[in-house]
Specification:
single chain
Length: 202
């Protein structure tokens, strides 16, 4: 109407009508927009509250799961530690028992522990030591038997007598005693000068 008005007064009147119509039409539209915005904000708040409630519930469930899982891990750790300690103690006892037998002279005593831990290494070293001791004992026994055979042969073929460093008689073989006409009890503990001429001995 403003563009078709012929006079300035008609144009001004049309402008005023337009302002009134615009205000009258804009009010309900603005109210509608504001109402829609309020509904949107309320919906967002409800969604956020639901999400917050779900988050709190999820958090609580996560904490409970962590506590239960942590408790299970602690219990399992304790059980495994107890089992390992028991196995180590048992293995150490086995090595200890074998060591006692070896110390008592049972040179064939060996530890039955075959684990690959420190106790197993100890048992292996103990068994190697026992093996070497047994071999040394066998060798010494053979050497002793050989020496005894030699001394027995010498004793049969020669007259022998043994003295302490101070010259007292400790023993003599039968060849010596029969040759000189003494019994062992007569000369044992006596000084060897009894076999010499008194003039030579003094």
């Amino acid at each position: 109407r403003i563009w078709t008005s012929r006079t300035k007064e008609e144009a001004e009147a049309a402008r005023e009508d337009a302002k009134r119509n615009s205000s009258d039409n804009a009010g309900p539209k603005l109210f509608g927009v504001l109402s829609a915005l309020e509904r949107l904000v309320e919906t967002v708040r409800e969604v956020a509250k639901d999400m917050n409630d779900d988050g709190i519930l999820s958090g609580r469930l996560a904490v409970q799961s962590l506590m239960i899982g942590g408790g299970v891990v602690v219990v399992l750790g304790l059980l495994i530690g107890w089992a390992i300690a028991r196995m180590l103690a048992r293995n150490l006892n086995l090595v200890g028992e074998a060591a006692k037998k070896l110390g008592a002279g049972e040179l064939s005593a060996r530890s039955s522990v075959t684990t690959r831990d420190e106790v197993g290494t100890l048992a292996l070293a103990f068994n190697e030591m026992g093996e070497k001791l047994e071999q040394a004992a066998v060798a010494q026994k053979a050497q002793t038997a050989e020496i005894k055979g030699i001394t027995d042969a010498i004793s049969k073929a020669q007259a022998t007598i043994e003295f302490n460093p101070d010259g007292t008689v400790t023993t003599a073989n039968d060849n010596f005693l029969n040759t000189l006409g003494y019994a062992l009890q007569e000369i044992k503990g006596q000084h060897h000068r009894i076999f010499c001429d008194p003039a030579y001995a003094n």
